[in-house]
Design goal:
By secondary structure, the protein is of the alpha/beta class. Helix content is 32%, strand content 24%. The protein has two domains: 3-172, Peroxisomal Thiolase, Chain A, domain 1; 178-330, 3-Layer(aba) Sandwich (Peroxisomal Thiolase, Chain A, domain 1). The protein is built from eleven helices and 13 strands. The strands form four sheets. Strands 1-7-6-4-5 form a five-stranded mixed beta sheet, sandwiched between helices. A four-stranded mixed beta sheet has the order 8-13-12-11, with helices on both faces. Helix 4 links the parallel strand 4 (76-80) and strand 5.
Length: 331
């Protein structure tokens, strides 16, 4: 039976480091306040004029090189982002051109923090059915251009950073490797708990001076609601994945969670009775890079030599929508 495997992985973050102390120069906050509430110490910001597709280019090149194939061997491209280059066309088209691809299908996925999980599941289906051989999946974000750097926007702005992560998904006949299971969920009743109003297409015209003055250009978040539902849904998803696949938590080497908040991931681990050390983190260095966070963390773990062939890992995430899910994979 053909399974899909991550045959290559890569990531990229822009060089500019923005610390908590840097943010404290613009808003009423402090390093202690941010770290206590999120675990984040610093994040990366792209320079002016840099699109999320530009960050994605480097991550994709590294993933393709790691897979040992050429860019021309990529059959299909899936791009996950909540910070697209433009409202339309899809950013996948811009990325396709920048990678020198021509004719391959592209798909934009707008599932925010769970975008990579959804994209990986789509790639898995394409590969297992034999429709495509090498599917390039990328999550990339440039949040820094759309954040409110006044104290009013503090609760959101301190969390987010820019970055990209990519993976090549290819077929494998080894029964002991590959994506074993995906579980994906959504609950649109809570869409207004984390949202951006500026693209309200019911308004005519949809963008006015009032909408800008009313801060519709900045993301809004009900932090308590997001936190509560994230913990509940992630615990449920991990438990159901383990039960469905008849897997013991001790069998999993690492959990690769979305990097939104250190406290969320620690509480999830505690409620599941799983050693916190199994839940890996790099949010302290990059903040929340939404669709890029899981592949970015996975790539760092791989590059550090922590993953060996046959290791069982679980990727999991929760984000705006609400959407959430998990991918169980044998490396």
């Amino acid at each position: 039976m053909i399974r899909s495997v991550i045959s290559g992985i890569g990531s990229y973050v822009p060089p500019t480091v923005v610390t908590n102390d840097d943010l404290a120069q613009f808003m009423d906050t402090s390093d202690e306040w941010i770290q206590t509430r999120s675990g984040i110490k610093e994040r990366r910001y792209a320079e002016d004029g840099v699109f999320c597709s530009d960050l994605a280019v480097e991550a994709c090149r590294r993933a393709v090189d790691d897979a040992g194939i050429g860019m021309q061997d990529v059959d299909y491209l899936i791009f996950a982002t909540l910070s697209p280059d433009y409202h339309f066309p899809g950013t996948g088209c811009y990325l396709q051109a920048k990678l020198g691809l021509e004719g391959q299908g592209v798909l934009d996925v707008r599932n925010q923090c769970t975008g990579f999980l959804y994209s990986l599941s789509i790639a898995d289906a394409f590969v297992r059915t034999g429709q495509y051989k090498n599917v390039l999946v990328v999550g990339s974000e440039v949040h820094s251009s759309a954040l409110d750097f006044s104290t009013r926007g503090r609760d959101v702005t301190v969390l987010f950073g820019d970055g990209a992560g990519a993976a090549v998904v290819s077929p494998c006949e080894d029964p002991n490797r590959g994506l074993l299971y995906s579980e994906l969920h959504a609950d649109g009743k809570h869409a207004r708990a984390l949202y951006l109003d500026i693209w309200d297409m019911s308004r005519k015209p949809y963008m006015t001076h009032d909408s800008i003055d009313n801060t519709d250009i900045f993301p809004k978040m009900d932090g308590r609601t997001v936190f509560k539902h994230a913990v509940t849904r992630l615990v449920e998803t991990v438990e159901n994945t383990l039960k469905t696949q008849n897997v013991n938590p001790d069998d999993i080497k690492y959990f690769i969670p979305h990097q939104a908040n250190m406290r969320i991931n620690q509480i999830v681990a505690d409620k599941l009775g799983i050693d916190r050390e199994k839940f890996l983190h790099n949010m302290q260095n990059y903040g929340n890079t939404t669709a890029a966070s899981i592949p970015l963390l996975l790539d760092e773990t791989y590059r550090a030599g922590k993953l060996e062939r046959g290791d069982l890992i679980m990727m999991l995430g929760f984000g705006a929508g609400f959407t959430w899910g998990a991918n169980l994979m044998r490396w």
